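task queued by scheduler; priority normal; single chain, no ligands, no partner chains; default sampling; output format set to structure tokens
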Amino acid sequence: MARVRFNSAGIEPTEMKAARVGLWCSVAALIAWLAMTADSAMRPVQGNRREIIWLLSFCFTLAAIGCVHRVQRGRSRTELIGFCVFAAASAIALAGNLSMQLHFKPLAVLGSPAGAMAWLAGLACFGVGTLSARALPWYAGLALIVLEPASVVAALVLPHIAPLAHRVAYTGHLGIAFAMLAVALGMRKYAKAVEVQGVCYSRLVSAVQTQSLSREA
């Protein structure tokens, strides 16, 4: 059972909303990464349209991880530091990838290898923070830690099946898709815990108020 925080009015409304939004963003990221991988396997040729799919996938992933931070912030200092590192790394990776797409060579180095290495470090730090916060199941934190390494492993293996010239990492995003599946399952479990504990808390408050009124009467 996830650890859910309460205020005087019950569960924090923003935390409930973040759990639901994070779930759907995780699912959207999963579908987008899988779509890119499938398209790469079926059409193993260079396709610039995949850059648009990559951008959507990346943005959904950032939104999902942002929601993960929202539901677990304040629980661990390690989590906060990890999220700050991840946010900085994501900015570097995004700037580098956009520079590669626009053929802006001065910043293209931020895409690869600098962006990939920064994102690997940022996700690892945030994954450790997620395990430390213990708001989501352990497999969600572990998935964040191995997200980028899994992508690298897939990128090394899958080009033999679906070669993509200079863009082999497209099929490698299958590793990210599986990681986002774990995050989605973790957010789903947390959302259910929020709903169940919220109902129990509301019933408890109602019972206390009823008992208090009966005593006054």
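post-processing summary
- Helices lie at 13-42, 49-72, 77-101, 105-108, 110-133, 138-157, 169-172, 174-216.
- The first helix runs from residue 13 to 42.
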